[in-house]
User: Fold these one by one.
Assistant:
Number 1:
Amino acid sequence: MSQHRHLLRLAGLPTERLRAVLGLANTDADVDPQPVLRGVSLATMFFEDSTRTRTSFTLAAQKLGASVVDLSGSGSSRSKGESLVDTVKTVEAMGVGVFVVRTSQAGAASLIASAVKGSVINAGDGRHEHPTQGLLDTLAFARAHKRTDGFDLSGLTFAIVGDCAHSRVARSDVAAMTALGARVVLCGPTAMCPPSLGAALGCEVTSDFEALLPEADGVQMLRVQFERGARIASARQYRDGYALTTDRASGMKAGAVVMHPGPMNRGLEIDGAVADSDGSCGLPPSLVLEQVRLGVAVRTAVLREVLALDGGGLGPAAERLPTEASL
Ligand code: CP
């Protein structure tokens, strides 16, 4: 490894670096990259459950020729009380140089980055950020609207609908898409989308889904994160106000796309027919599985970029580590 770099968050990442990693990912989505990580050991350390992120990081690392070890909370000595930092330093002592970390604690990836010599990639820390998800969502949206030449998203409106307050995906999406010029609007009941969130993130907020929907070029539906304390009065009431039903989706504007980072709760925030739409039957196309597919390419690109294998690296984000108090 030539340099030790991290990817901890998208907020504050210089726009030229954002464009560079999206450009690499756009290439990797169509042509498998060379195995430039031979001799590198990478650990996926997921202390929260995952299907998409963990699997795609593993596949990405394997495509690049890295060896991969996998740790989770229940099968590791974390369950005996070992601290997160001690756990990562223990694995580092065995020769692992890249740590892909998911935790329920906002700021944990930054804390680990300050404690180890290797590279840390944040795979989701509490409600703070999920940077590779933000990148893959941006790539999917840009490809759908043929904006991959320079990734200029100006003139496009991206709606993020549902439990924004608990969503690290929303925070990373806002950071990436606004940096590239998109108008981003958070939408949901006030408890899930308070105006203060929009003010903090630098985007619009509305509770009027019906008014927003015809303006949106992309609608990212979010899961209600009950595990982080989200509450709804009833599934029916939530669905009536904020689900992307077939009726609502059929009124979306021409060229608009439906997105969801997954996992989905079909019948709550999104109808199954909308999630599975191929763009026929009067419904906009769903990018849900395209987002998953692009997730592998984004992760090969991030690994190449973080390890400075294509020049540049994502250093400036690492140099602006958030303090624990700011999270
Ligand atoms: N979108 C996402 O992070 O999915 P997983 O929890 O399955 O990784």
Number 2:
Amino acid sequence: MTRLSAATLAKVPAGVRLPDYDRSAVTAGIVHLGIGAFHRAHMAVYVDDLLKDNPDWAIVGASLRRPDTKEALEPQDGLYTIAVRDAAGTHPRVIGSILKVLDANTQREELLDLMASPQIRIVSLTVTEKGYCHDPATGKLDRGHPDIVHDLANPETPRSAPGMLVEALYRRWEAGTVPFTVMSCDNLPSNGETTASIVFELALLRNVDFSDWVAELVNFPSTMVDRIVPSTTDADRAMVTELLGMEDAWPIMTEPFTQWVIQDSFESRPPFENVGATMTRHVEQFERMKLRMLNGSHSTMAYLGYLAGYEYVSDVMGDPDFVKLIHGLMTEEAMPTLITLRKDNLAAYRDELLERFRNPALKHRTWQIAMDGSQKLPQRLLGTIRDRLAAGQPFERLALGVAAWMRYVVGIDEKGDNIDVRDPLAMRMMAIAAEAGDDAEALYIGLVALTEIFGGDLSDNQAFGDAVVTHLESLFEIGVKATVAEVVESH
Ligand code: CS2
């Protein structure tokens, strides 16, 4: 079967939107580390909209872990389809903004050389929470992380994303080239500052003068990124192939909604505001709103929903008790902590989120969201809980989210089947769970001692412990659905 590529693009049926610029005339201005589905449904689409008027801002992507994206996109000359889906239908569009994908493991020199060249003015990242090799509770570099240990010993052949940034910046410093802007697009709190402190610490361990240059000249704008992007399935691939009349090995399914808020602190950039991004000096409040409302709800739905047997977020939204729980979590517990935002804006944001979660065409698996909970909990639920505790206010639903995570990482569901728990701390968490058995208190004590998640403060907090253990006992004794029903009834 014909495959989507530069040569076959003209044969794509009318009705599928195509790049509106001459791809052979665009050049790369951005290197993107972590060329996963999210980036291709988000930033790459904004850049696709930019290229007609700003042809020197295309993207070269790099995959740091697996070569699968490169292998799929290479025969397609970087072209792929995004299928925007909701109840009203599917809208396919071919994206052309990614010129090339490099595999960091086998093409490291080529990648570092490109990152060091003056033509690259932005290096952006979606390497997921764990890709920052940091301590999620404090945001500081984890010097004991195996990839960081490797990169400290072998700075010229780095493996980690922070190590790649530092080596490329070092080469620019040595060559007298102005630095690129580092733009994190991951769901971390203050992602610019967090990245800056990690990169700066690594740079300092490399060379003091170089670290001064980094501190003085490198921009690390924070961003808030938002678009729901489920993993692509074989059925999705078949659907897109049918729509295109030719094969696309790596299409992306996503929703109509998209949002990008960027801290307006750097000059060498394309006019992102012309293609729908919001440039602002106050990105933190958007980030916090999104992490606490969208992602906090997502994680809570993921753990509870998975255990209750709901495969997709839209299934969870079909259960009225779960909807009440999530509505209450946002309205009563998260929104009051977002004091810099107007209440009516927040209520509208909440309602829009509930609508997005309901999207029946988006097969967003609870298992997918459940991944890497140890890296996600701090910014999604624990920060909100800290604020509630400090204000002396209740946080019952948030505590249920944390308890559901603890129940989930035990690795056995309510039917006695194994759960495929994916998390950098999975081995440690499962050992803790094996020791605790179904003793809720022992499980809590074991898990809360992971201070890289809970910090020293929550580990020692009696009110936090009481709230989580009460829910955990209930999850073990009466199960998820009955626990959720009891919690929503009590309000
Ligand atoms: C999700 C996010 O997988 C997850 O953890 O909560 O990927 C979420 O879909 C995005 O942040 C939406 O912008």
Number 3:
Amino acid sequence: MSERVALVTGGTGGIGTAICRRLADLGHKVATNYRNEDKAREWQGKMRSDGYDIALVKGDVSSPEGGAAIVAEVERQVGPVDILVNNAGITRDTTFHKMRPEQWSEVINTNLNSVYNMTRPVIEGMRQRQWGRVIQISSINGQKGQYGQANYAAAKAGMHGFTISLAQENARFGITVNTVSPGYIGTDMVMAVPEEVRAKIVAQIPTGRLGLPDEIAYAVAFFIPDEAAWITGANLSANGGQYMGW
Ligand code: CAA
């Protein structure tokens, strides 16, 4: 497979780390952004000791200026972005009748507006080079809704609406645009759900366990090779059978 430049947002998190490693294993040059300097440097040290050289760029995906600055710096350090994985995301879980404006806007800015902020600066280059992959990391909860996640589910459902529109606009330019919708994966984000609530959720997963970050990285990698050129606008569920809607 040809070597490409991949930008994975939120690469220092649980799922993001697994995606960075898998794309590097496949021979791509990988970059990610970070916000917390100490956490990022510690992460980079661990990655290096495991043999991974991932470019790290400081920046926030939640504003257009932040997105543009991240892309410019990745392009300077590594090269034009061929593969964009919109993975960065946060939760601010609470029932809607108690939701404060900032709990709504932080989630929408980081999980949904980031998709505009990051994709807008890379799409023109992909169109010119006639090759690109844009992959949204959405969520099972964007497909089925979730008690306590009106903000998150709205953002995650919105990501797939973006996918299926961008896929149509760019199919003739060798660019595919797809969504991966993970179920509950054993990351810090899911472990932050109170234990008794989490136990009830796990009880609803037919595989009887949380997913592994690598199981999401595998789904992401599926969309990347040239052989996947016919697959665009898809939403690939990777959720242990918890939700099997169309
Ligand atoms: N359906 C129906 N009722 C529910 C419910 C559900 N799923 N969950 C809770 N309730 C009810 C409770 O039974 C309770 O009712 P009573 O007062 O009559 O006993 C009431 O709602 C309040 O529940 P809590 O005590 O849990 O309320 P809270 O305000 O303390 O917390 C919450 C609410 C923050 C939403 C908490 O329940 C929670 O964290 N839920 C999990 C949310 C979740 O799944 N987040 C996913 C995070 S991981 C992620 O997002 C990754 C991904 O993509 C999958």
